[in-house]
Fold this sequence. Notes:
Structural class of chain A: alpha/beta
Oligomer: homodimer
Helix content of chain A: 25-40%
Radius of gyration of chain A: 21 Å
CATH class of the largest domain in chain A: Alpha Beta
Largest interface: A-B, 45 and 45 residues
Strand content of chain A: 15-25%
CATH architecture of the largest domain in chain A: 2-Layer Sandwich
Strand order of the largest sheet of chain A: 3-2-1-4-6
Low-confidence stretches of chain A: none
Shape of chain A: globular
Order of helices and strands of chain A: EEEHEEEEEHEEEHHHHHEHEH
Number of helices of chain A: 9
CATH topology of the largest domain in chain A: Nucleotidyltransferase, domain 5
Largest sheet of chain A: 5 strands, mixed
Amino acid sequence: MAANDTKWIAVDWGTTHLRAWVFGSREEPIASLKSEEGMGRLNPGAFNAAVIRLIDPHLPEGGRIPVLCCGMVGARQGWVEAPYRTVPCPPLGGSFKEPEDCDPRIDVFIVPGLSQKRPPDVMRGEETQIAGLLHENPEFEGVVCLPGTHSKWCQIRAGKVIRFQTYLTGELFSLLCTQSILRHSVNQDDWFNGGFTEGVQDSVEDPAGFGRELFALRAGDFLADSSASARSARLSGLVIGLELAGARAFWESGPVTIVGAERISWAYSAAMSGQGVKTEVLDPEATTLAGLRAAYRQLQGTAV
Amino acid sequence: MAANDTKWIAVDWGTTHLRAWVFGSREEPIASLKSEEGMGRLNPGAFNAAVIRLIDPHLPEGGRIPVLCCGMVGARQGWVEAPYRTVPCPPLGGSFKEPEDCDPRIDVFIVPGLSQKRPPDVMRGEETQIAGLLHENPEFEGVVCLPGTHSKWCQIRAGKVIRFQTYLTGELFSLLCTQSILRHSVNQDDWFNGGFTEGVQDSVEDPAGFGRELFALRAGDFLADSSASARSARLSGLVIGLELAGARAFWESGPVTIVGAERISWAYSAAMSGQGVKTEVLDPEATTLAGLRAAYRQLQGTAV
């Protein structure tokens, strides 16, 4: 309806979801859109159609508008590979990758991810959230934790990502809950509860005991000395505690800024509080949007 | 054919397999049999039929012979629950559990598993292997490692299991290889190779880095600085090293007796050699059989 007001579109295109925000001339989006057509479900060549299905009603009648994308859409298996930029470097910079097979009404720009040579590590999407954080608070220096399937810890200094580490925490928790022998003994949806804090503490103090503590959850079920809910909470505590033990160098001099969904951020915040570390939690959607706005400004700067 | 020679039958009934050995009057079995009807595939009430399908041709025409079983057949979801005996205790002892719904030609006796109250732990089947080891070597004292899906470490003294620990190592390795993001970057069958020893060492030295080292395997794939075979070897090293880090109290004063399948025992032996620990490897089938023979002798003793 107000499609002719559309000036540009911001897109967060991850493995499982596709989200888009339509911008006019104001700071806030006119519309926010979402589909399940994540990068993981699309064959090469299906990307243009997927994004058009979502944004078509918002495209102006004449002209061509910029569509700024971040996330796994730039992976090797994505729309077109946007080669990693190597840290240390600012979270945004260099040139965007432009796929060739675009609808004539859009110009697509993909934000490159970041890589680290030693130890080997990569990110796609989180660099845009870090850019958003720096866009809102240009003087920020310190540590950003982005919990999730593959949790990231990033050291930021002088506007640059200095180094980062990724932990398989969320994926490990989910596999243990749904695919391992523990699936009979836990309830994945009921994990933030009594037992969590103790699980964190046990892994932080004795990370080597991880594999044994996992089986002890199963044995505790057989020996009937715990509830499924307490076991789930302990399991999430053990997995997050193992990550904290590994990432100690990032958080021990605190504070830590957490960018993540509400419940998981709350858990990480509680886990770090238990270690005497102060945390601040930022909304992930707002932070991604701020980063895509920063990318849009970079694009405008390039165009001028 | 020589069914009338059958004196008793030994059965190892695990989650995925059912194995039976037919004994006459001599020490060595007359026949060894195997089916895929593991406890995990059977409904309650289907156990008698499953074992009869396997051993029927070997049952004598008259009379009733003893069938000694160990393993998950005695679990809550098995044929009939054989309640755990609590350590410290000898690996065999107390009474066998006798299911009621047996073919009239057999008397079934199920060896009970062992449990530990603090920390909570359980075993079913490994107690019979330990009994086999003690049957062959009654003076044995020290540490037995039984690697596998759920690896066990057991302290043996004065003919008793004093304490034990279970690690989810094999299951974790298999889940990571087949279900996680790493499945794109490794080859589960090609894991004992260059990279293994270094993976063990890295986990032993820094168990807290486990979750990070997992993701680094994936990143190493993206950044093209390793092969799938080297990554698989490193993954198995990391997982086994995490177990070694946790079980240090068991092996640090060595030596360790390993009871396990050839390839996995070889890997554990190499991993411990790297830590300066001497190991001896025992054949798991022979050890199980020796344990079931010990159980049969206990039964004869009771009957007298």
